[in-house]
Amino acid sequence: MTTIPEIKQNLQTRMDQAIAAFKNTLTKIRTGRANPAILDTVQVEYYGSMMPISQVASVNLLDPRTISVQPFDKGMGAKIEKAIRESDLGLNPASMGDLIRVPMPAMSEERRKEMTKLVRSEGEGAKIAIRNLRRDANEHVKKLVKDKEASEDDQKRAEADVQKVTDRHIAEVDQLVAAKEQEIMAV
Predict the structure, then answer these.
(1) What is this structure's pTM?
(2) Are 98 and 126 a contacting pair, CB within 8 Å?
(3) Which of 25, 88, 143, 184 is deepest in the core (most CB within 10 A)?
(4) For 93, phi and psi rounded to 5 degrees?
(5) In 55-170, where do the E strands start and end?
(6) What b/e readout covers 113-143, taking b as 16+ CB neighbours within 10 angstroms?
(7) Residue 54 in 3-state DSSP?
(8) Which CATH superfamily hosts domain 4-28+108-185?
(9) Interval 47-62: pLDDT, tens
(10) pLDDT digits (tens, 9 = 90+) for 114-152
(11) Which class in CATH covers the domain with range 36-103?
């Protein structure tokens, strides 16, 4: 049997996880600026198994538009370069000795608008997830009232608290979307 405080705690945790997942999604959306996290999804073969680039090389920023990749193992340079080139990120790495430079191509106005639409739709997805969590929490509270384990006053207070938590998380999603759009539209 769960209690109203447990329901609220569970809701808070799950909404925080939804925000974390949304932030993770945002890091993968390209802006005009270089971001080492964009290479997190690229896998490279390392002694027979596929590994993320960050585990076989040091990934840093050289300047706002260039990522540097420094392989830990001298022989990995060509494999890493090939993995970046073949990823669907549209990047064209260039080797300079054992350092790989990954310049971020400038984005066209049209591409920027596509990216802001993508950010908005991902934000909407995150908001829907948060609202679904709110609905689930409210249903749990209603079930407690129906089973005579909580009063209707408890239900009203709990639903008000659930709404406050939901509003706070939705506002955070809106802030993240606005910040990402600003980052994308900055030339």
Answers:
(1) 0.71
(2) no
(3) 184
(4) -75, 155
(5) 57-63, 66-71, 94-96, 99-103
(6) eebbebbeebbeebbebbeebbeebbebbee
(7) helix
(8) Ribosome-recycling factor (1.10.132.20)
(9) 888 888 888 888 888 8
(10) 888 989 999 999 999 999 999 999 999 999 999 988 888
(11) alpha beta
